[in-house]
Write a structure and sequence with these properties.
Blueprint lengths: L1 H24 L12 E5 L9 E3 L3 E7 L13 E7 L6 E6 L3 E5 L7 E7 L5 E4 L3 E4 L20 E5 L2 E2 L5 E3 L3 E6 L6 E7 L5 E5 L5 E4 L7 E7 L5 E10 L13
Parallel strand pairs: 2-9, 12-18
Antiparallel strand pairs: 1-3, 3-6, 4-5, 4-7, 7-8, 7-9, 10-11, 10-13, 13-16, 14-15, 14-17, 17-18
The protein binds 2-acetamido-2-deoxy-beta-D-glucopyranose (4 copies).
Length: about 250
């Protein structure tokens, strides 16, 4: 747990710089969604934030636009897009007009989840770090409700060495592929790296969508695909290995 807690701090410092220079240097790479706001959540009585919640624990999200956000000005209502290690769809949860929302983490123990936020126009509030769910120390059957799941989008997804699994590893600068097999276009593929703004890639056809993993070794990320008619698919957390090339990064950034 101590390692998990340290990871995002270390990464967020190096990667923000890396990805900003990437965006400037390589016009062909997919730019991340420049955040229009930022959010965080508070777990009462934690002096040092630990990325752990118990099942049905209530967390408090709060958000605002600060001088650090230069993306589109956010327009309410807001929503959370929640990825989990035990589901093949993301959960889309209304967060209203803000600037805060209480949410009971519904996932079973041993699930990992990650929350990203968007506004009504799709402007990004970024993604937070991945949290792990542990049993509620006071109850063997804690009570809270799973959010409704969206209609599942059928997808064929691969990494270079075969089929993509929930926790597949892919090397930096290698290419993953996602092919929609249901729903209607346009499709939006969202790459949601831990503790970082997401990337969106839109496709107007049912053809395979490829993404070269422009994230350095050690990163974790979730993927989601949504269709114009509201079907969704998600996968993760996947991790980035170090055996790939450097060619997808701007020179001098590694
Ligand atoms: C949180 O801290 C306050 C003040 O120290 C204390 O009164 C309260 O019982 C604590 N709550 C929990 C859930 O531990
Ligand atoms: C902007 O980011 C810096 C570095 O992370 C932080 O120190 C500062 O407090 C932030 N400013 C605002 C207004 O949140
Ligand atoms: C990015 O993708 C998310 C879904 O994953 C969507 O809600 C949002 O509207 C998209 N934003 C943009 C700017 O495409
Ligand atoms: C368990 O219950 C005790 C007493 O009500 C409370 O102080 C403690 O914070 C609870 N623990 C959790 C994990 O909810």
């Amino acid at each position: 747990m101590r390692c998990l807690a340290m990871l995002p701090i270390h990464l967020s410092l190096t990667v923000v710089v890396l990805l900003q220079s990437l965006e400037r240097a390589a016009a062909t790479s997919v730019p991340y969604l420049n955040p229009g706001f930022e959010f965080s959540y508070i777990i009462p009585n934690q002096t040092v934030p630990l990325p752990v919640t118990s099942q049905c624990e209530r967390i408090y999200l709060s958000w605002s636009r600060t001088n650090n956000e230069t993306g589109p000005a956010p327009v309410a209502p807001y929503f959370m897009q929640v990825y989990s290690s035990t589901s093949s769809v993301p959960y889309v949860i209304g967060a209203g007009f803000g600037p805060s929302k209480a949410w009971d983490v519904p996932f079973s123990p041993n699930t990992q989840f990650q929350i990203c936020m968007f506004d009504s126009n799709g402007a990004s509030g970024g993604c937070q770090t991945t949290y792990s769910v542990v049993p509620d120390a006071n109850s063997t059957s804690p009570s809270c409700q799973m959010p409704p799941a969206p209609a599942a989008l059928s997808v064929s997804a691969t990494v270079p060495n075969g089929a993509m699994f929930q926790n597949s590893q892919i090397n930096q600068c290698e290419t993953l592929s996602v092919t929609p097999q249901s729903g209607s276009p346009p499709y939006t593929l969202t790459v949601a790296p831990v503790a970082h703004p997401p990337f969106n890639i839109t496709s107007k056809t049912m053809d395979t969508i490829s993404w070269q993993v422009a994230l350095p070794v050690g990163f974790k990320f979730f993927l989601s695909l949504s269709s114009a008619d509201g079907q969704m698919w998600a996968n993760g957390p996947m991790s980035v290995g170090g055996l790939g090339g450097n060619d997808c990064f701007a020179p001098g950034t590694m």
